[in-house]
Amino acid sequence: MSTDPSKEHGRFENFTGRVQEEFGKLTGSTKQQSEGVAHQASGATEEAQAKHQGYLEGMADKVSGALKSTYHSLMGDTVQEAKAEGQKAKGEAEMEANK
């Protein structure tokens, strides 16, 4: 099992926490309710961590691509410049997806 935060796992934890909390309300179990709330908080935290990590990884790709693109542009290497622009665009897309 990976220790990296995962948006999907965080959403799953949040969902199971909501189900557990509602089950606790239906059965009158304050223990189930509080455990459900704890799962929700854990899931929301993991999802937020994964989004931040994805955003920072995207930012690194964007900056790296921009620097490489500028370098290859100055050197006149249009093929490598285009590859670097692709890396920059990938980073921008990842940043947008993780806002």
Describe, in plain words, how this protein is organized in 3D.
The chain has 99 residues and is an all-alpha fold. It is 88% helix and 0% strand. It has one domain. It has three helices and no strands. Helix 1 packs antiparallel against helix 2 and helix 2 (30-75) runs antiparallel to helix 3 (78-97). The mean pLDDT is 95.
Give the arrangement of secondary structure elements.
Elements: H1 7-27, H2 30-75, H3 78-97
Helix pairs in contact: 1-2, 2-3
Protein name: CsbD-like domain-containing protein
InterPro entries: YjbJ_sf (IPR036629)
Region (Disordered): 27-50
Summarize the structure.
InterPro entries: YjbJ_sf. With 99 residues, this protein is mostly helical.
How many strands?
A: 0
The structure class reads: mainly alpha
Number of domains: 1
CA radius of gyration is 21 Å
Mean pLDDT: 95
Major sheet description: none
The percentage of residues in β strands lies in: under 5%
Helix content: over 70%
Give me the number of helical elements: 3
**Span between termini:** 26 Å
Poorly predicted residue ranges: none
Strand-and-helix sequence, N→C?
HHH
Tertiary shape: rod-shaped
